[in-house]
Amino acid sequence: MSDAEDRGPGGARPVLTVRDLSVQVATDAGAKTVLDGLSFDLIAGETLALAGESGSGKSMTALAIMGLLPKPMARVSGGTIRLGDTDLTALSERGYRQIRSARVAMIFQEPMTSLNPLMTVQRQLCEVLLEHRVCSRRQAPKRALRLLQDVRLTEPERRLSQYPHELSGGMRQRVMIAMALACDPEILIADEPTTALDVTVQAEILDLIRTLQAEHGTAVLMITHDMGVVAEMADRVVVLREGRQEEAAPVRDLFAAPKTDYARTLLAAVPRLGTAPDRPVHPEAQKIVEVDDLSVRFDIAGGLLNRTVARVHAVEGVSFHIRERETLALVGESGCGKSTIGKALLGLVPWDGSIRIGGVQTRGRSRAAMRPVLRDIQMVFQDPGASLDARMSVGEQVVEPMRVHGLASGSELGDRAEWLFRRVGLSPDMLSRYPHEFSGGQRQRVCIARALSLSPRVIIADESVSALDVSVQAQVLDLLQELQEQDGLSYLFISHDMAVIEQVADRVVVMRLGQVMEDGTRDAVLRDPQHPYTKRLLAAVPVPDPTRTRAPLPDTAGIEEASPIFPVGSAPARVELRQMSPGHRVAH
Amino acid sequence: MSVAADPATRPRRSGAREVLRQLMRRPRAAFGMIVIAAMVFAAVFAPWIMPADPFAQSFDGLDLMGGPLPPGGDYPMGTDLLGRDLASRLILGTRTSLIIGVLANGIAVLLGAGVGITAGYFGGWTAAILMRFTDLMMAFPALLLAIVLAAIFQPSLLIVALVIAMVNWVQMSRVIYTETRSLAEREFIQVQRSIGSGPIRILFKHLLPHLLSSIIVFGTLGISTTVLLEATLSYLGVGVQPPMPSWGNIIFENQTYFSTAPWLVFFPGVLIVLLALAFNLVGDALRDILDPTLKGRH
User: Fold this and answer.
1) Could you give the number of structural domains in chain A?
2) Is B292 close to A434, i.e. CB distance below 8 A?
3) A299, A362, A433, A447: best mutation site toward chain B, by most B Cβ within 10 Å?
């Protein structure tokens, strides 16, 4: 295999050599090969990206290298993994313990679940240091502090005595990186290290990994589905698909001239900020959703008598409207209140202010009185797997809303279900299947069919494409677009992904800590951002182009420290929006 | 794509008949079904299949020292202290034990699951009142409660079953309560609320199927506890009244003679274990059959 003989810069000796690696998983139907003849070299000091969509076997590769394949379900069925002179596939569990952390370390996607919630940061760091006898018990706390300073954690002394839940997602990932680097390993495997993080935090973590790599000369194996991250981080890329190597190339070559069809389609599907076509112009239509001064607050009970001691001001004085045939995007980082607004529109959380849907005020309506309103507004949730009932066939679920609203019965239901399935591009033969028999993209189509079954005028899409692979994401976005053109639907599109928003939105509302920072037409907000927060969000988006380097993040110190929780009696200061130009308002 | 096997070869709808067919296809579940069927048969046709009169005390049934006879000869399972035929008493006892086991446990399951689901889904005041009541019931020593209840009402099979149900439903309701609470937060339930489904629909159509496995596991585990609790009550004189036999009271009457006449404890003990095992095996299989994500696996 010629790709395997690829040499890094200067033909340096590889630290890790993988040859013809195959992994099999036991299934009901016998052994299934999930990784088939993978070969690559990892050279000291370089970053190699394993890129691919879900099911491509990229995480399996990482687990195989770490000797962490779930036994006895999965096993290495062929090939070798050589670390220096050691063949890792022949190593016993005991032998592996000497390797892990000390020579090969790994950081995972979800830093919260990878850290022990019952141990302080210091204890977890010291544990790694002592296990591998990096230093004596007396020196360990000092070493731990140095590690935290290394990963540029703010207030490292205080962090040592904190528990994981007291840290933000970005801080936790920094602690994970500190633990991974505790023994100065030769190889760092990063399995989707920033997927669970906000874009600005992602940018910081990627910067950190790059800096540390330069300082320590560590070889990084970066596993990711995000071609933006690949372009930004990798020196070389191996593209995987269904367990096979599709293409291996230096990053610039891959992006400039992909050789295989798959790599080409994969790259073409990546939404690129600044390339979205113009949105179709429609005459100013009627307002279908009007939200005025919306606030949502959640009580936090505490103390001896379980009284309300503080409130989370999830949404604070937000106003916006959506016209017919219009897509309004709500953008912001996690915890900014964007999903809460969607739930308030459906009456799923208690709220204050005014919401009119199709001209009908929904304030103070009981759940039963809300029912007719819900025929006009429906929601598609983020995770199609979680939002479908695993114990009911998809056909039943698609017509469930019509049953609830008494809109159809008997054979009419079956006809409607078939029609809905065709509309979302699924075969009616699949109606009697259960959700687990579908792929992620198909499940999201089922959810869209269900939302459409009441013929609503507005659909709230809450991160509806975030959990999907890029190629599937593009197809689902096309479907939403098509439905909008045919039915004159309006969307409230809730997302954290700026590039996706640029594709679909007519107007954009940028939120932070429950308040609007900036709103206006898509072009005004995304191409001429005025608020520093919007600028920071946009600057943090990884550019899927290795020839362009992302500008450093504008420094907005203190932004991470703010919290939407206030004691009873006090409220956050309301920001005022100032008109910059017609239809473009900015907080000041 | 994760689509398994050919959909056409698999049955889609699982009616009662289909469930039965699936049960009989699994060896362990089939064994359980056969045991249960045999016991039901014994209970229903007890008068016709008993080898002797279960109430007749006879000197023939005792040895020279006046002790019970071991299995063999005229008495296939030996005799008890009063010279009564053990096999006949066990067959007649099947009636009592099966009725208690199924009825008492059934009531406990319905009550426990009902209270648990209601409290778990509605939360707030509903949950506070229901769950504090559950705590109160839990705080009472089960036996004391049973004795008081049995003393107030004239002991009969139905009353004993009710008393046992009263004592047993609390654990079930606790487990179902916690599980419902976590399920109610799940996204697919949120979706139902966003569609406008009413609480009854959500409870029965969407929550109940997900709770079935816990209900089945607890329900089948409860069978053996129930049978033994009935025995305890009989021992204290507030259960099934002698000379009416039940497996439990046969064990309790004879446990002090375990070293000299072990068969008196051994045979009823085996039957209780068999009953519990049979229900557990069927319950396990039922749980898998009713879960569509496990279709086609064993």
Assistant:
1) 1
2) yes
3) A433
CATH (domain of A325): 3.40.50.300
Residue listed under structure tokens 């396990």: B284
Q: How far apart are the first and last CA of chain B?
A: 22
Say whether pLDDT at A1 is over 90.
no
Contacts of B193 in chain A (CB under 8 A): 346, 348, 367
Tell me the DSSP string of A443-484.
HHHHHHHHHHTT--SEEEEESTTTTS-HHHHHHHHHHHHHHH
User: Which residues on chain A are in Cβ contact (under 8 Å) with B194?
Assistant: 346, 348, 374, 378-379
Query: The domain containing residue A530 runs over which residues?
Result: 287-376+456-587
Nearest-10 Cα torsion for A472, A476, A482, A486: 150
pLDDT tens for A369-387 read: 888 999 999 999 888 888 9
Average pLDDT taken over every residue of chain B: 81
Q: Is the pTM of this model over 0.95?
A: no
Q: Which two tokens mark A77? A: 């069925």
Q: What is the SS3 assignment for A305-363?
A: CCEEEEEEEEEEEEEEEEECCCEEEEECCCCCCHHHHHHHHCCCCCCEEEEEECCEECC
| A-chain residues near B205 (CB < 8 A) | 392
pLDDT exceeds cutoff 70 at B298: no
CATH class name, domain B17-45+86-294: mainly alpha
Residue-wise pLDDT tens digits, A90-109: 888 888 888 888 899 998 88
Q: Which residues of B touch A391 (CB under 8 A)?
A: 209-210, 290-293
Work out the burial of residue A300: count CB atoms within 10 Å of its CB; fewer than 13 is exposed, 13-18 middle, 19 or more buried.
middle
- Numbered residues of chain B with Cβ closer than 8 Å to any chain A Cβ: 1-5, 7, 12, 186-188, 190-198, 201, 205-206, 209-210, 290-293, 295-297
Distance, in Å, from the CA atom of A463 to the CA atom of A121, rounded to the nearest integer, reads 32
Tally A–B CB contacts below 8 A.
90
C-beta atoms surrounding A572 within 10 Å: 16
Percent of all residues in chain B with a pLDDT value above 70, rounded to a whole number: 92
Could B292 and A389 be called an inter-chain contact, meaning their C-beta atoms sit closer than 8 Å? no
**ipTM of this complex prediction, to 2 decimal places:** 0.75
Task: Kindly indicate the confidence band of residue A4, based on its pLDDT and cuts at 50, 70 and 90.
Answer: very low
